[in-house]
Write a structure and sequence with these properties.
Distance between the termini of chain A: 60 Å
Structural class of chain A: mainly alpha
Order of helices and strands of chain A: HHHHHHHHHH
Number of strands of chain B: 0
Number of strands of chain A: 0
Radius of gyration of chain A: 18 Å
Shape of chain B: globular
Number of helices of chain A: 10
Oligomer: heterodimer
Radius of gyration of chain B: 19 Å
Order of helices and strands of chain B: HHHHHHHHHHHHH
Shape of chain A: elongated
Strand content of chain B: under 5%
Helix content of chain B: over 70%
Number of helices of chain B: 13
Largest interface: A-B, 20 and 19 residues
Helix content of chain A: over 70%
Chain lengths: 212, 269
């Protein structure tokens, strides 16, 4: 399937918005520092879930950053090349997909941050994850432009659900493709939520506090 | 002020060498973190190349550049950024150090305060960049697309441009107070623009990359020179590198003259 320059630029607006506004590196560092310094221990005596707390902080920060960056990016591209090649329905579906994408991104970065229970530095894992989102996640170019065998594998991985899916749905897709794409995102939310829960429970069991 | 910013070349080299040994020994105390960061950065750099491999598989070339040229580009950029971070680890944090008053500690030490500031820290992840860069350039040398002598020269000029550019921007903290965001954006711009084949850039973006964000001098011109050597372009590159360094040191020195310590008590990091 061919993409025009117009479509690719608007695709980039959506993919860049749904990934870069999340600031996953900051989340990974924050969680990693709290684990390493022992600050996490103060959460254990409080009646709330640490992961849910981080989720609330994540969305709180996004509440300002997401609309501002999305509006600025859309305004620049609209002025440069014209209105988006989409419909109202496709834009709404893409908005739902962006919300799921950000949730997947949050869970992935939280899981990576919690690796600090086992590794001194979890930031290298984040770098690898980020580059996988950039390349086989479809941040830079739609998966259709990758070699067919790679695109087939990449489409099923969580990285594509972070970047490619919202961008592709924004450009419009057939109803069964929309359902398939959104279902895959929901699957990855559920799978990563389970993984993060297991990681957290396992990490708390081996928690030891350093420092005074 | 007392400190001689220029110093003798021999004493500057010995000071930098001493800091390197201490920083490396300190890094070896946390070997798991050191190897995790280095390997992670290597994998990070390698994954970026996957995008270009996929692109060239489909489109063949971009403005005459092939995958081999892009591998040479990535190798050179990774190597110079890695060396800048390993040897002059504080070059990315100069604005922060000045704003936080950590410059005060260096002012009472013998020798160049700028050299103390720049070399007193080693970025561990930079080793991954260095290794990745060497591997890419070695592949290029084996394929005959990267002349070894030129690669060595461009590694030196590229590292000098990176550190000089970041020093120039970091010194804005003497005048702006909080220059960290500006430095961060400029550093990211330098790296990101350097990593795309130069034929992509035309018009005003080309002018930008030859001036405000010198990615063209860091990476594009060196790779073009490795493809087709041009003595005039080489002379321009060397002149730019020398000029940037002179400007960076002069600007730091100018800012230092008007610097006043806030007597802030800080933890030196």
């Amino acid at each position: 399937m061919g993409f025009t320059l117009h479509a690719i630029l608007w695709y980039l607006v959506v993919t860049e918005t749904s990934t870069h506004t999340a600031d996953g590196g900051n989340l990974v560092q924050r969680i990693g520092e709290e684990v390493k310094s022992g600050d996490l221990a103060r959460v254990l005596i409080r009646p709330y879930s640490y992961v849910a707390y981080q989720f609330a902080v994540f969305w709180g920060e996004l509440a300002l950053r997401l609309p501002v960056q999305a509006t600025l990016a859309a305004a620049v591209v609209w002025v440069a090349i014209g209105p988006p090649p989409t419909s109202g329905a496709a834009a709404l579906i893409a908005l739902l997909s962006v919300a799921l994408s950000l949730t997947i991104n949050f869970l992935a970065c939280t899981g990576i941050g919690l690796l600090a229970f086992w590794f001194e530095e979890s930031l290298p894992f984040y770098w690898v994850y980020q580059k996988l989102v950039f390349t086989i996640g479809g941040l830079f170019i739609p998966l259709e432009l990758l070699p067919e065998w790679l695109a087939g594998i990449a489409a099923r991985l969580p990285f594509a659900s972070v970047a490619y899916t919202p961008g592709r749905l924004f450009l419009g897709a057939a109803p069964d493709s929309i359902l398939q794409a959104l279902s895959l995102q929901v699957f990855w939310v559920a799978a990563l939520a389970c993984a993060v829960s297991l990681l957290y429970a396992s990490g708390i069991r081996k928690l030891s506090i350093h420092g005074g | 002020m007392g400190a001689n910013l220029w110093g003798g070349t021999g004493s500057l080299a010995r000071l930098a060498g001493a800091y390197f040994k201490v920083n490396l020994a300190s890094a070896m105390e946390y070997r798991v973190a050191f190897f995790a960061q280095s390997v992670g950065m290597m994998v990070n750099d390698g994954l970026f190349l996957i995008f270009w491999w996929a692109y060239f598989e489909r489109f063949g070339e971009v403005g005459g550049w092939t995958l081999a040229d892009t591998v040479a580009l990535y190798g050179l950029v990774a190597l110079v950024i890695g060396l800048a971070v390993v040897l002059f680890g504080n070059c990315t944090r100069l604005a922060l150090l000045i704003a936080e008053g950590q410059l005060d500690y260096c002012l009472v030490l013998p020798g160049s305060p700028l050299l103390h500031l720049l070399t007193s820290r080693m970025g561990l992840a930079g080793w991954g960049d260095v290794l990745f860069g060497v591997i890419c350039l070695a592949i290029g040398a084996t394929l005959g697309t990267v002349p070894v002598g030129l690669a060595f020269v461009f590694t030196v000029t590229g590292t000098a441009i990176t550190v000089g550019y970041l020093t120039l921007l970091g010194s804005l903290a003497f005048f702006m107070g909080n220059a960290e965001a500006t430095t961060f954006q400029a550093r990211d711009s330098l790296v990101n623009f350097s990593l795309y084949p130069s034929p992509i850039f035309r018009g005003w973006t080309k002018v930008l990359l030859l001036t405000v964000v010198p990615a063209a001098f860091l990476a594009h011109i060196p790779v073009e020179l490795m493809r087709q050597f041009d003595p005039g372009m080489m002379a321009l590159l060397l002149a730019f590198t020398a000029g940037l360094w002179i400007a960076a040191i002069a600007f730091f020195r100018f800012g230092l003259r008007r610097y006043e310590s806030g007597n802030l008590i800080t933890m030196r990091s």
